[in-house]
Amino acid sequence: MSSSDKKAVAVVGLNGELGKPTLLALTSPQFKEYYKFPIRAITTSNNKFDEFSDSEVSYHKVDYSDESSLVSAFNGVDVVIDLGTRGNTESLIAAAAKAGVKLFFPTVYTPNYGPEKNDYPNLLGFKNVFHDDRLKCVHLKVGWFADWVICKPPVLFLSLEPNHAVRVGDGNIEIPVTFVSDIGKSLASLAHHPPAQLPEKVCIQGDAYTQNELFKLYEQVKGVKLIVEERSHDTQSQIAAEADKKQNINIIDFMNVVTATMTSPKRNYIDYNKGEGAKLVNPGIFEWKKIVPEAKKAWSKEK
Ligand SMILES: NC(=O)c1ccc[n+]([C@@H]2O[C@H](COP(=O)([O-])OP(=O)(O)OC[C@H]3O[C@@H](n4cnc5c(N)ncnc54)[C@H](OP(=O)(O)O)[C@@H]3O)[C@@H](O)[C@H]2O)c1
Questions:
Q1: What are 197-246's pLDDT values in tens digits?
Q2: pLDDT tens digits, 36-79
Q3: How far apart are CA 142 and CA 187, in angstroms?
């Protein structure tokens, strides 16, 4: 690839879930030929990652409330990948458009919710579609972070008590997940395409799990017997509706809502591994990480 075809990329929001995995993907042998170096890392903090040399990543400190600081950070950039907290995206898009950026990935790395999202207007009522006539916005939809399902017990078990779990319905509902490292690779794989060739929404899914499958694996690997509370879909929806009305929510409230969306009869499960998005992102470039072997590895280490 000639140097004039390579894209200049800015990555915004380094210190959350997706910053480091995305920088690792952009600078990896699989994708680095497509990009100009150093990759521009746009941050509010003074933190720098040890993993990257100065020639791979340059850090630009910004103030989100000062548009001129964002415009100057984006000057000369072709693509902005927003990985930050929700709520700043509109100001980032405005600054990117002023700086002449052509492609923008808004921070909407959630499941591709359907009508079930509308039942929870407080917790799931955030804006998740962005459009600006001056640049192309591409929305990457990813399922749940598989890393969270493995490492944050309330995400899988819906309980804060050790070895307690709530099974919703028959426990066989397929829940789509993607590992954050694969989300980074997917962004690195998409960001070099001509913007006009990209769809506005790309849905991916590295894998899917059922509660029954992971409960059984957890019991085998940890050598414990889970105390399982059985809960119908209707009860789950009622609990989620109450959680959505609360002023102060905790992780269980949030997980009750997201689990209710997954088990909702309104939900139309689609296996995005077989869809156009997966083919566009990963036409045989990398192996999607699978949740069962990764969970086994992580839970064995914890013993
Ligand atoms: N699908 C899932 O299961 C799932 C789970 C979690 C998150 N997500 C999605 O992943 C994305 C990132 O979420 P996250 O939890 O990693 O985000 P986060 O921790 O809230 O924020 C990520 C980074 O954004 C930057 N930032 C932007 N605006 C900021 C502000 N006003 N105050 C403080 N920091 C700000 C900070 O980076 P700097 O320090 O570099 O400035 C921060 O480290 C979001 O789109 C979220 O919806 C999805």
A1: 999 999 999 999 999 999 999 999 999 999 999 999 999 999 999 999 99
A2: 999 999 999 999 999 999 999 999 999 999 999 999 999 999 99
A3: 11
Tell me how far apart the terminal alpha carbons of the chain are, to the nearest angstrom.
48
Residue nearest to atom 35 of ligand 1 (CA): 85
Q: Which two tokens stand for residue 251?
A: 């992780």
- Kindly give the pairing relationship between strand 139-141 and strand 9-12: unpaired
Q: Is the CB of 152 under 6 A from ligand 1?
A: no
Q: Are 80 and 74 in contact (CB under 8 A)?
A: yes
Q: Are 208 and 146 in contact (CB under 8 A)?
A: no
Given a contact cutoff of 8 angstroms between Cβ atoms, the answer to whether 74 and 101 are in contact is: yes
Encoded tokens for 148: 């969270």
d(CA 177, CA 66): 36
Provide the β-strand partners of residue 168.
Answer: 231
C-alpha 300/C-alpha 131 separation (Å) is 45
Q: Is the Cβ–Cβ distance between 287 and 219 less than 8 Å?
A: no
Q: Which atom of ligand 1 is nearest to the CA of 12?
A: 40
Residue type, 233: H
Does the C-beta of 16 come closer than 6 Å to ligand 1? yes
Rounded Cα–Cα distance for residues 46 and 38 (Å): 18
